[in-house]
Amino acid sequence: MRDLIRMAAHAHHYLAIFNDNGRPLYLGRSKRITSPEQRLVLHARDRGCTHPGCHVPGYLRQVHHITDWAHDGPTDIDNLTFACAPHHHLLNHGWTTRKRKDGTTEWIPPPQLSTITAKEFGAVPVAPLL
């Protein structure tokens, strides 16, 4: 394993481990705060804030639980996404998020803003690094 990490270090700045189906490993609901391993996978997958049109890089972001921890949301990689501080704050003002079937995060405006379409809103998928 040490040799594998040494070889990968020259090509990548991080190493993510996946299961047989190509999905990131799940780390469970044992704690609310994400592990360093989960943050590495999030950085590789999301690269930065997932709010459409936002370009805040991964190292300047917060981790958001799609299903909130307080509502029994797990700290599993499929329930996590990156959000910069201003966009994370929107979630306290009626915005919600959900995971699409393709694994990307959809940001849903509150009802008073719901007439904005995804195209107008700038929902452009970002290609993952993985």
TrEMBL record:
It holds the Pfam family DUF222. InterPro entries: DUF222, HNH, HNH_nuc. Residues 37-89 form the HNH nuclease domain. Transmembrane segments: none annotated. It comes from the Bacteria. GO terms for molecular function: endonuclease activity; nucleic acid binding; zinc ion binding. Belongs to the Rv1128c/1148c/1588c/1702c/1945/3466 family. This is REP13E12 repeat protein.
